[in-house]
Structure formats: structure tokens, C-alpha cells
Amino acid sequence: MSSTVPLASQDPFRWDALLQSLRSEHPALYRAWFDDLSPGQLVGGQLCVYVPDATWRDYLAQQCAQAFADIAMAMTGHLISVSFSGPELHGRSLDGAPRAKRLTRMSLNPDYTFSEFVVGPSNRLAHAACKAICAQLGSLYNPLFLHGASGLGKTHLLQAVCADLLRENSALDVVYVSCETFVNDFIQAIETGGLAAFRESARRTNLLVIDDVQFLASRESSQEEFFHTFNVLYQDRHQLVLSADSPPTEIPTLRDRLISRFNWGLVAQIDPPDRETRQAILQKKARLRSCEIAPDILDYIAEHVESNIRTLEGALTKFIIECQVNAKPPTLQTAREIITGFTGPDRRSLQVSDILQAVSSHFGIRLQELLGRRRTRSISHPRHIAMYLARKLTPLSLEEIGMQFDGRDHSTILHAERTVETDCQRNPHTVEVVTTLTRTLLARS
After folding, report:
1. What is the pLDDT of residues 76-123, one digit of tens each?
2. Does the global pTM surpass 0.70?
3. Looking at residue 75, which CATH number applies to its domain?
4. What is residue 338's predicted lDDT score, i.e. its pLDDT?
5. pLDDT at 158 over 90
6. How far is Cα 99 from Cα 79, in angstroms, rounded to an integer?
7. Is residue 167 part of a domain?
8. 27, 274, 341, 347: which could join 320 in a potential S-S bond, CB 3.0 to 4.6 Å?
9. Which strand (E) or helix (H) includes residue 415?
10. Environment class of residue 378 by beta-carbon count within 10 Å: exposed (0-12), middle (13-18) or buried (19+)?
11. Same-domain pairing of 127 and 240
12. pLDDT tens-digit profile of 163-194?
């Protein structure tokens, strides 16, 4: 005989207690929107939780089911399984017919929405373009091509476009897929004789979003298939959004006709975020997990973790776990302890000699002049920029950097840093030079 326990109504604190335990024991999984979940009755060892959003439901089912079940079993002392129900995720196309399944539909991350995206100087154009195509699907910036290094927010923006459109019109046929999955599904369709179904599912979409299209490099048949898919969607005024780690012209062995089509719309670059943007990202991520962290701690993490947003979020998650699970105090000292593993290989491997070489080449001056004592503007300005980059891109102290610049005093390095920062506020050309050199050095390392 099965027992029925109304989890929410019989004990109004039990569901809250389950969520509190989940937050304490699994801070990396917990989200602020868990408060919007509706627990059903506990029947025969089965707890069904209603989820009002399809992407939330997929996240819970894929990432959190076992954690919910473990805590529920610990609370009740009985064997319990947890399931999540809610609206389906765009299961049908506009004509109401069941959609072909040949092209895999990847789940969306509920964290990747426009409201959770932090806009800064490094990504403002890409963000504005994504918002614009949601308002004018298929007629503006088609295709939209985003490029930038790994972990800078390309996937976030791509999925935010999908989530925003589905929220406005759930009947839209929206497909988000990685390029690797597209290629693998194409190969499988050839092997199983399902090529017609694969093409049908790919070419009837209202929005096709493909992440990491650099995966098409050196894949002749896949490039040919995507070329024809692109043409069909474009001619039907259906939207394409693409991303890669480099602009179309720099993807190796990509056919010219694909390069030209990728450039038909808008190509927007995403650069590494500045310190203020990194701190804003940390604040947003902390609130998403219902955590309040002191601004000086977030600023410290933002200052020392510069490689990319994924590493930044990893450092924040580590800090939350150390405080909530390992009972360490949420102090600046704890932040210092966890930062060591997150400064990133880029920053550790970059040498002052790399910076000197890049600056020397950019300004067309000899290395001896850069390290010398001449104070003419044509020499001192590049020298100051080299010192500034050494401060920002290496973990060396002022004294250590001074030794690399022919034994200069630490105050000289500090003066150079402040001079360049002031110049950046007044002179857009200096900002451009610093940004270009930074991007080049990080790419090399």
C-alpha cells in the first residue's frame, strides 16, 4: 500500500528545508529561481516537482535530480526518487506537425539569458546585435557571426537569443546545436540512410544557431552540406546565428563561398572583459546563486582572474563552496587562498620578454631603445605601455618588473602604469594600442 505525503501542505517548512539543504550542500547547483518551483505530493516514494519554465526543467532533470533525491531521502529516511514536470521545449514546428529528430536539439542553459548577461565595452556590439535580431528575425544581421576566444560569453549570447525568442513565441522552430553535433548528426544520417530527414529538420527551422563553426575546418563534405543548408535558410529569410573562436577569414581550410556568406550579415568580436565588467559578472553570478558576497572580495577576484569568464565563474564557485561546505569564513583571506589555482596558465606562462618583443615590433623600435634611458616621447610612450602590460599580464611584483627593465626602481613602474591609465581615459588611440597588444599576447601564450 503506497503512502501519500503532501510535502508542501502537511509541513510548510519541509520544502523550504529541502531547498536550504540543497543550497548548503550543493552551492554550485543551486539557483535563485528554485523558489518558484512547486512541489507536488510525495506518493509511493515518488516526488514530482512542477517547473514553470522548460529550460529550468531540463536543467533540473539533467543536473539536479540526484541531489534533490539524496536530500529528500536524508530528510524522510525513505527511498525517494524525484521527477520534474513542466512545459515542453519547442517540441513542434509552426504547422503543428511533429518535428524531425535527425538534427539533435541541444538543451538550453537556464543561466544563459539576456537578463543574466553583463554588458561591457568588450561585448556591447555583440549584445546589441543579438537583441536586435530578436526584434527583426531573419531581416536584420543575417547571418550574425560572433567570434572571440573561449569563455568570453559567445555561447551565453547564442542561447540567450534562443531563450528570448521561445519566451515570446513557443511555436517557433528554434535549434541550438554545436558544430560538432551538426557534423556528427550529418555523418550518422549518411550511414543510416536518413539524409533526407536530417536536411528536413535542419532547413525548416526559423532560427538555426550553431556554436563553434571552426569545427568545419578540413571537413569538405560537412562544409558542402552546411553551404546548401545556409542557402535554403537565407533565401527563406530564416535567421542564422554562428560563433567561432576567430573571424571567418581566419578559419583554416574554410571554403571561400562559406567565408563570403558568413560575412553577408554582421561579424562582431567579443574581447576579454575589463576589471569593472568582471566584477559586475561576479555580482550577477553570486545573486543567481542567492549569495551575498562583499564587494571588496568580488573586486579582488576580478582583479586577479583575467583569463576568461568561465575561469572567473569557477573561482567564484570555489569561494562559495569553501565558505558554505567547508565552513571557511567569507573573507578576503579565503579569497586569496582559492585564487592561486585560478590565475590561469595564460598569465603564468607569459613573460616580460614576450611583452617587450611585441611592443618593440608594434612600434618599430629596437629592443635596446625600449630598455634604454632615452626619454623622448617616441621611446618613453612605448616603454610605459610595455611596463603597463607587464603589470596587467604577469604575476610579477613592481620590483621584479623593474629588474626586467634594466634594473629600474619600482616607483618607475608604478608611474608608468598610472601614466598609461590616464592616457587611456583621454586618448582612444592608446586604448586601441593596449587592446591590440593584449589580444596578441594572450593569443600567443
Report:
1. 888 888 888 887 654 443 334 444 447 888 888 888 999 999 999 999
2. no
3. 3.30.300.180
4. 81
5. yes
6. 38
7. yes
8. 27
9. helix 410-426
10. exposed
11. yes
12. 999 988 888 999 999 998 899 999 989 888 88
Q: Among 85, 104, 133, identify where a domain stops.
A: 85
**Bridge partners for 48 per DSSP:** 83
Last residue in a domain, options 236, 269, 302: 269
Question: Per the domain annotation, does 282 fall within a domain?
Answer: no
Are 435 and 374 members of one domain?
yes
Residues 330 and 364 in one domain: no
CATH number at residue 401: 1.10.1750.10
| Same-domain status, 190 and 129 | yes
Residues 6 or more apart whose CB falls under 8 angstroms from that of 130 comprise 114, 144, 157, 158, 160, 161, 241
Please check whether residues 262 and 323 belong to one and the same domain.
no
If you search the block for the grid coordinates 632615452, which residue do you land on? 374
Residue pair 140/132 in contact (Cβ under 8 Å)? The answer is: yes
How far apart are the C-alpha atoms of 232 and 238, rounded to whole Å? 9
CA count, 13 A, side-chain hemisphere, 227:
13
Name the 3-class secondary structure at 120: coil
CA distances from residue 70 to 73, 243, 300 in whole angstroms, order as listed: 5, 38, 35
Instruction: Please report the pLDDT score of residue 93 as a whole number.
Output: 38
Residue 53 and residue 86 in contact, taking contact as beta carbons nearer than 8 Å: yes
Give the pairing type, strands 81-85 and 144-147: unpaired
Question: Within a 13 Å sphere around the CA of 180, how many CA atoms are in the beta-carbon half?
Answer: 2
**53-76: b (≥16 Cβ within 10 Å) or e:** bbbbbbbbbeebeebbbbbbeeeb
What mean pLDDT do residues 401-410 have?
86
Task: Count Cα neighbours of 402 within 13 Å in the Cβ-side half-sphere.
Answer: 13
Q: Say if residue 311 is in the same domain as residue 381.
A: no
Per the listing, cell 536536411 goes with 199
Contact 182, 280 (CB under 8 A): no
Cα 91-93-97 angle, rounded to 5 deg: 90
Q: Is the pLDDT of residue 229 over 50?
A: yes
* pLDDT at residue 332 tops 50: yes
On whether residue 280 sits in a domain, the answer given is: no
Question: What's the number of domains the chain is made of?
Answer: 4
**Residues 262 and 125 grouped into a single domain:** yes
Q: What does each C-alpha distance from 116 to 27, 113, 121, 153, 401 come to in angstroms?
A: 18, 5, 16, 11, 38
284 in any annotated domain: no
Handedness of CA 190, 191, 196, 197 (dihedral sign): negative
Name the residue range of residue 145's domain. 114-269
Q: Is the pLDDT of residue 1 over 50?
A: no
| Domain match, 191 and 136 both | yes
